[in-house]
Write a structure and sequence with these properties.
The chain has about 325 residues and is mainly α. It has one domain. It has 14 helices and no strands. Helix 6 packs across helix 10. Keywords: Cell inner membrane, Cell membrane, Membrane, Transmembrane, Transmembrane helix, Transport. Pfam families: DUF6691 (PF20398), Sulf_transp (PF04143). It is a multi-pass membrane protein.
């Protein structure tokens, strides 16, 4: 029997807000993991490095814990369908839980509010249909940091220090609007690597890399398997993200060069709604999205557990994104 972990999830949420904001300040980019994955599949160098950072963070977590993630409670066909819907939906709606729920809501984006509400709605419906009877009863609240929580907190200092150092380096000038100097390119890649690694540690601290905790939340309080940990993560991540964006985004110029690619405005359309709905169905089937998927891949590789299931899921995500 697992227990909700409000303190770990809240602190993990605070930790998620920091790399999301750091990547915006340093590179002028949204921290959107589905976007990283979709661009990496198409050969985008910066996206590949971001994906590597997330997987390496998972590997580090796996070595600390000396085990891998809990397996998904799905057969192969449902694993593939879940991944495909998550990939297709996140590509259509241009975001997932990190890109819309954390990065987008921090900017008070109407599109992200609508997308988040949509994928939570379809996620809840799908989880209720698929998992109403197969999840274990949840235990009482566990207010401790757990066996490895202090380690996850402590090791976040190192990637955070890298981001801080990059921020205070002299601003690199561009040779032109479209061409980076070589030092700028290298530093931008380091920013992607360090923020991805930091995000992985924070997500594992929150315990929301475990599919059953997400599914337990999506079942809502009407179920004995309800796990409120995701709510505590949101209480940590969202207020801090909003405050940081509101009061500390500076002149809207990437510190390490390159364009400021943070979207403003945008309208709600059928593509956004349909994509978010599909994403929510896939999310509600398996309980994972691209961030936990990449981190759990690293955990499985380091912990010596079977990575076949998560590789199949990530492959289906990539395929879904390639169709759009």
């Amino acid at each position: 029997m697992s227990s909700p972990t409000p303190l770990q999830s809240f602190l993990g949420g605070l930790g998620l807000a920091l790399p999301v904001h750091a990547l915006m300040l340093l590179n002028g980019n949204v921290f959107g993991i589905s976007g990283f994955l979709h661009r990496a599949v198409r050969g985008g160098k910066e996206a590949i490095v971001a994906v590597v950072g997330l997987v390496l963070g998972g590997v580090f977590v796996g070595f600390l814990e000396d085990n891998g993630p809990n397996p998904l409670t799905l057969g192969l066909s449902r694993v593939l369908l879940s991944g495909f819907l998550v990939g297709l939906g996140s590509k259509l709606s241009n975001g997932c839980t990190s890109g819309h729920m954390i990065s987008g809501i921090s900017r008070l984006s109407t599109r992200s509010f609508v997308a988040t509400a949509t994928f939570f709605t379809t996620g809840v419906i799908t989880a209720r249909i698929s998992h109403s009877t197969d999840l274990p009863t949840i235990g009482s609240l566990d207010w401790t940091l757990g066996e490895h929580g202090k380690s996850f907190l402590a090791f976040q200092i190192f990637p955070f220090a890298i981001s801080t150092l990059l921020y205070f380096l002299p601003v690199v000038k561009l040779e032109s609007e479209s061409k980076f100097t070589k030092p700028s390119q290298h530093l931008r890649l380091l920013a992607y690597l360090s923020t991805g690694f930091e995000f992985a540690l924070a997500l594992r601290l929150s315990n929301l890399s475990e599919a059953n905790r997400v599914l337990g939340f999506l079942l809502l309080p009407f179920s004995s398997a309800f796990d409120p940990s995701l709510a505590f993560l949101s209480l940590g991540a969202l207020p801090l993200s909003i405050i940081l964006y509101r009061f500390h985004r500076g002149p809207e110029k990437a510190r390490l060069g390159g364009p400021w690619a943070i979207p403003k405005g945008g309208h709600v359309d059928r593509k956004l709604l349909g994509g978010a709905a599909l994403f929510g169905v896939g999310w509600g089937m398996a309980g994972i999205c691209p961030g936990p998927g990449l981190i759990n891949l690293g955990r499985a590789l380091a912990g010596g557990s079977d990575a076949t299931q998560i590789i199949n899921w990530l492959g289906a995500v990539a395929l879904g994104g390639l169709l759009v």
